[in-house]
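Please think about what follows:
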Amino acid sequence: MFLDVIHSNVADTWGEKRNTLQMDSVDQSGFPHNRPPYQAVAVDEAQLDVLGQRLEQRPLSFLERVKTQCCCSGARLKSLLLGLFPVLSWLPRYSIRENAVGDLVSGISVGIIQLPQGMANAMLVGVPPVFGLYSSLYPLIVYFIFGTSRHLSIGTFAILAIMIGSVTAKVELLDNAVEQIDVEAAKVNVAVQLTFLCGLIQLLMYLLRGGGVGRWLSDPVIRGYTTAAGLHVMVLQLPLMTGIPAQRHTGLLPSVWTLNDVLHGVTSAVPGALSVSSVSMVILIGGKILNERFKNKLPVAIPWELILIVMGTILSVQMDLVGQHKVQVVGHIPSGLSPPVLPSLSQARELFLPALSVALVGFSFLSALGSVFANKHGYHVDSSQDLLALGLCNTVGGMFQCFAVSCSFSRSMVQESTSVKSQMAGLLSALMMLTILLKIGQLFEQLPKAVLAVIIVVNLQGLMAQFKDLCLLWKCDRLDLVVWVASLISTLVFNLDLGLAVAVIFSLLTLIYRTQRSSTVVLGRIPGTDCYRDVLLYTKAKPVAGVTILSYPSPIYFANSQLVFTQIRQTVSRDHKKNPAGVHTSSSSSSSSSGHTWRHTHCMVLDLSSVTFMDSVAMLALFKVAEDLDVQGVRVFLAGCPERILSQLQTQGCKADSLSTLCLFPSVHHAVLRWLSTLPRPLEVHRVSLPRSSEDLMRKSILTKCL
């Protein structure tokens, strides 16, 4: 039966071949007449299914899907365990000779950086520095077991610390007589509850297979948001760097009100704090410049943050900065580890939205940075498994009084530059933090807070460099520039949690606007090719006589379907008069090559190759347009339909008469050839005559190609 179908189509394709030669002769395109015959065969979707031997794909029923997921075997159980615990797949094959040196250097280097960053980020959260050390210990152990990226450094992250700090700043005391220690305890309680709730949300996202949810946060949204967060942090560090008392504000424009407090209290600045901040900033900025200048000569970047912390602590003790100069210091750091406690979640309702924001932002950064390193070094990361790992880091960490963590860009870059080989480096960094907590944590009690504030501000230079995005986006995509600016302004105005929600909503609205702004494009054929391009962009692209070729570059759905099909009706109506086929309608014996009575005087080919989806509203509108144009004598062909749209067309049983299978073609060129093959033979012009022997030879060639 397959050969019968092929032979039945050869006669039709032979007529289409001659029409193609006619089309080339009319426009004098320079098409070589001896080109391969398969370029001229007009195949519709039904014939292509036969020639390509398409497989029928029956969707599985619900019970079949459940049975497939629940079936158990030894191989499936092993695959499940290796997927849930990636450490089991690489640790047995770990080579000490090849990997130990790189992992040891990387683990120590990152562990040294973890110490100052953990303490500084704890200040951003508004909790004692020791909780930053906790957050640099437990999550590293969890990610060592469940994580898939060998280059990511898990631990405290400034952006998340800022977001949590904006929540803990709302902790207010009903009684002013309550001591400061109770304020810190209340803030720790809020931070721990938010972290635990954030972990639960990420675990729920994993169960719902939400590993790709981070893609909803576009790059302009993230970069505008983080830039605003950096500005917010810089303003919050001014009171610590100057010694000026300032209140933590919430609500609208919190950074502006904090800056206003600092400017009005400039006369009460503490000279000791200003001196410590100035010297620390000169040392740290100068050290980073030296690292950048000699980065090719240094085996490992010099840890200037650690040097600054050690120097600041020694000078604070020797010069008695607390007693004589009124400089604020870190204070008591308890030794040892805190026992695990299940958070109460008594404020879960109030903390849900902030926890959701922290969960999305934290996972978005981890997923994006993990993919960058994986592509660069040629290995695979599982974003879904990393979502599980991050959820467990925050859930388990919440039990040990940690605050929410993610990957740090700066520490991850250090981990990459020190030739890390596996996740073993993270475990070594965790062991370093454990040693600090158990043995030497108390040595940093006299560390000035101004030093930590300077470390925070200087390390935000990367975020401030994102202002360069404005020039780039102005040149390439100004709508993304609007999204970037809107994300920045909304975050500065509405604070970090609500500002992110506003930025995401605005980004989605711009996506809808892009689909509304798109318009149909009229295509023409470039002579000498089977390519069709926009006639307004290509001067050589000429319309085919009697054919209107249209393309739409966006999805078609309920919000824009009326606009799209109105444009199509208007364009076809105008082109029907300007670009006739050169034939006259006839209801008598004039018939096309396919044997149908000739009643169409024009053809509209709609290229759907760029339409990713069409909803039911758009599909019904398409059928309506096809019916109306058919009454007007215009034949409708669909070309390049994606598989999803083809399935939708096949399931529209009630409209099967409107769009038969013969109206569907794999490309625009096939549709045009089919239309030309249906033109009445007596009306054809500029026909290219071939000898009988050539005709037989080409018939045989077409049959050979099809077989």
Observations:
- DSSP finds 28 helices and eight strands in the chain.
- The longest helix spans residues 478-517.
